[in-house]
Amino acid sequence: MIRDITLGQYFPGDSVIHRLDPRVKIIATLMFIIELFIVDNFIGFAIAAICLGLVIAVSKVPLSFILRGLKPILIILMFTFALNIFMVDGRILWQWGFLKITAEGLRLAVFMAIRLVLLLMGSSMLTLCTRPLSLTDGIERLLAPLKKIGVPAHEIAMMMTIALRFIPTLLEETDKIMKAQQARGADFETGNLIQKAKALIPILVPLFVSAFRIAQDLAMAMEARCYRGGDNRTRMHEMKLKGRDYVAVLLLIVFLAVIIIETRLF
Amino acid sequence: MDNIISIQNLTFEYLRDEDQMNIKAIDNVSLEIERGSFTAVIGKNGSGKSTLAKNLNGLLIPTEGVIYVDGFDTRDDNHIWDVRQTAGMVFQNPDNQLVSAIVEDDVAFGPENLGIEPDEIRRRVDKALEDVNMGQFRKKAPHLLSGGQKQRIAIAGVVAMKPKCIIFDEPTAMLDPKGRSEIMSIIDELHEEGITVILITHFMEEAVRAQRVIIMNEGHVLMDGTPQEVYANEEVLKAANLEMPLMFEVGAKLRQQGIDVPSHIITEEEMVEFICQYK
Ligand SMILES: Nc1ncnc2c1ncn2[C@@H]1O[C@H](COP(=O)(O)OP(=O)(O)O)[C@@H](O)[C@H]1O
Ligand SMILES: [Mg+2]
Question: What is the ipTM of this complex?
Fold first, then answer.
């Protein structure tokens, strides 16, 4: 089940988007998200959607793959839509008992839905086209200037790196423990919610024990390999902005400018 | 004689709560490890082998006594990183010592910590992966590899730091026979390249490959000598709760049958060779 979620997954490829510097991609994604909240008319959303469409086309990630990632949040989407459409006061279009749909509410609901869909598609493009480890590297380097005000940039990135490494190991471990408990007659399928939750305890306890064991071993192994935090540490993969990165930044600026001018005009 | 490691009257105690006695895991041990040598340390569980290993690269600091690693005192905070770079360490569990989700990034972890230039790290990582025959797996995720392959990556990660000495703490204990023999042949190759090897193991057949075997028991060195000397001493082996290597026993049986097997034969290859040439 956990494996079905495409949100946050990496889609291997060799497109320009894949090869862009992760820092550029992170900033572009942030800008795209901010811009989605500035826009308040259809033309603006259309421009954003077209740009996102172009990026998706260039990246060669199948659209169906991206849309599949939206499935788990469909319920949230419908919920916010309903909330918006019924809860906003204004010019009434339709009424039935206490339920009413207003023109303002409809507009807001549609905009919010478009916003959420574009936001999720945009941010999943970041993870789909960037190797997880480049992403952590990018985050570390973007946060580096904030070290002066006490943001533990290196530690955050190291934690994410280790999480990426050990999530599959812990999943395997969970699987092993579940099978072992099932072999002893444990039942995870039937019963009400409380019974099911109770059945999880014999999994969680050994899982915690094994996670602590891993943490201890790993800390020792890292120390033995001369790990002493982020200071004076070099990296094998250097991050240097290339021609394509400057072009991307330029396009990003043009995109932002267009959106800002557009919202002012309409 | 040129010694890379010098252990002088080492005692190590694990501290416990006030009302309990401390555990004396190592009790007044003195040893010299010759540069470029291959030493095996054997002993039953809890005899202090891992504690000794962790003392050799400053993961643990002696309660009493001194350890010099290539001239550096392990108690000296200023040289702790020199100590750890000189004496690399490979641990038992192949899963719990890899840091990164990509093989080559993991091998780069040690050199990155040493602050080496990116180009040089790249060269070292490629070379180290070739040394352990894992070049084609450079971009793979460790959790997709077998135990033996993971352990080879762990070795590459240490080799890339260019240590003079590598301490292996039961590196094959969690592997299948195939993984075990791969790791052992890599250890042999590293030794041939001039790296000092200290191999902690509980497999007699592995200890046989060493030039020197040290038997530990309850924090003491019970015996220290060539494999032939050590294995000839049945009483000591019994005292340490260890079994004789299979070929040694085979040799003894053959001798009882009147076949004159020389006592230095302890490995399978030597035995096969001897039997093939026996007239
Ligand atoms: N972290 C620890 N804390 C307390 N006691 C320990 C610890 N690690 C090992 N010991 C004890 O030290 C002794 C030697 O252990 P160890 O060096 O791991 O032996 P070996 O590696 O030969 O099995 C054992 O009695 C063990 O219980
Ligand atoms: Mg041990």
Answer: 0.88
